[in-house]
Structures are given as C-alpha cells and as structure tokens.
Amino acid sequence: MPTYISLVTLTEQGLKEIKNAPERLRAFDTAAREVGGKLVGFYLVMGQYDYVVITDAPDDQTAARLILSTIAPGSVRTQTMRAFTREEFEQLTRNIR
C-alpha cells in the first residue's frame, strides 16, 4: 500500500482551536481506516512545520480525497509527498543504466 508523508502547518484558526487537535487527529485516523488506509505515524515537531503525519492509503486518489477532506475545515495546511520504501527504491532503480 502506498505511503504518504504530510508536513502539516496549523492555520490561525487551527491555533485558536488547538485544544480540539487530538479530536481532529482521531477523526483523521477513523477516516483513513474507513477508506482502507491507515494512520502509520503522527509527530508534533518543532520548526517550520507543526506536525508530520505518515499515512498509508490504497492509491493516490484515495490519499488525495483524504487530504482534501482534512484541509477543508481550514485548521491546517499540508504539503504531502508520496514516499517509497527502500525495497520500492531498489526495484525502481534496478534497471537504470
């Protein structure tokens, strides 16, 4: 199953509603499971971003819908990247000449 890494920044609205953040994370976890995905990891981080979220989803379209539904309420902004495992990397580069 493809893996996605999201760098998440809280908006002003998200900062004002920070006490609701754990509830929003639980809702995201539930939504991911409902579409056949999985919340693999969540980290509060210091620096340019506020959270790093690692998610598995069945495909890019499902991941995109999940992310769009997450950012729609306006509490966060995300930058999401498709991540490839070491095994996938080795397979992709095997036939490069």
What does this structure look like?
The model has no long low-confidence stretch (mean pLDDT 95). The chain is of the alpha+beta class and 97 residues long. It has four helices and four strands. It has one domain: Lrp/AsnC effector binding domain/regulation of amino acid metabolism (RAM) domain (Alpha-Beta Plaits), CATH 3.30.70.920.
Question: Could you give the topology of this structure?
Answer:
Blueprint: E1 3-10, H1 12-16, H2 21-34, E2 38-44, E3 51-56, H3 60-71, E4 76-83, H4 86-93
Antiparallel strand pairs: 1-3, 1-4, 2-3
CATH architecture field: 2-Layer Sandwich
Q: So what's the overall shape?
A: globular
Structural class of the helix and strand makeup?
Answer: alpha+beta
Stretches with pLDDT under 50, minimum 5 residues? none
How many domains would you count in the coordinates? Answer: 1
Task: Provide the descriptors you would attach to this structure in a database record.
97 residues; alpha+beta; Alpha-Beta Plaits; four-stranded antiparallel sheet; 4 helices; 4 strands; 30% strand
Concise synopsis of the structure shown:
This protein is α+β, with helices and mostly antiparallel strands and 97 residues long. It has four helices and four strands, in the order βααββαβα.
